[in-house]
Write a structure and sequence with these properties.
By secondary structure, this protein is α+β, with helices and mostly antiparallel strands. The protein is built from 4 helices and 7 strands. The structure holds adenosine-5'-triphosphate (ATP) and magnesium ion. Magnesium ion (MG) binds next to helix 2. This is histidine kinase. It is found in: Cell membrane; Membrane raft.
Amino acid sequence: EWVDLSEVMEGAIHKSVFRARKKGLDIEYSVQDRLPLAYCDGNRMTQVFINLLDNAIRYTEKGRISVTMWQEEDGIKIAVTDTGMGIPEAELPYIFDRFYRVEKSRSRQYGGTGLGLAIVKNLVELQGGTIFVTSKLEKGTRFELTFPNVAETETRGEDR
Ligand code: ATP
Ligand code: MG
């Protein structure tokens, strides 16, 4: 189906904003005008965005979470960035593995099963997308997604 990913993201943010506020975190959101539709499954994308926001909120104690969406030559880009605890460089290659959790002490404190990102990566790739992460310990983490299957801009119409 052709999906407006900005609408999907707005729904996911709406579901996450209460938990963010409880920790004193704002979710900044900006989307490029006239973002084209993407060919993907809206429900699965909701799951992807909620998982990424859940992590951003859970692993951030202060600062902000920001979500941006824009278009580039190779498709729609989505970035979820936080100012949280970050991920040690040596562990970055494993965070998309099933049941992988960073640092035992951290895991005990924050709960979770270690499945979130494995599911996210699967869902993204099933829909022809890619995901990559950059992170700096104690500075923050950024997940960037690319969805190459976009509609011609014209089909978007003027109704935005
Ligand atoms: P759950 O299955 O409930 O999502 P989880 O959050 O531990 O459990 P993943 O979402 O797969 O599992 O994340 C794997 C690990 O990567 C986490 O344990 C966490 O240490 C680290 N991580 C994920 N996202 C972030 C983030 N935004 N900032 C810092 N660390 C993160
Ligand atoms: Mg998680």
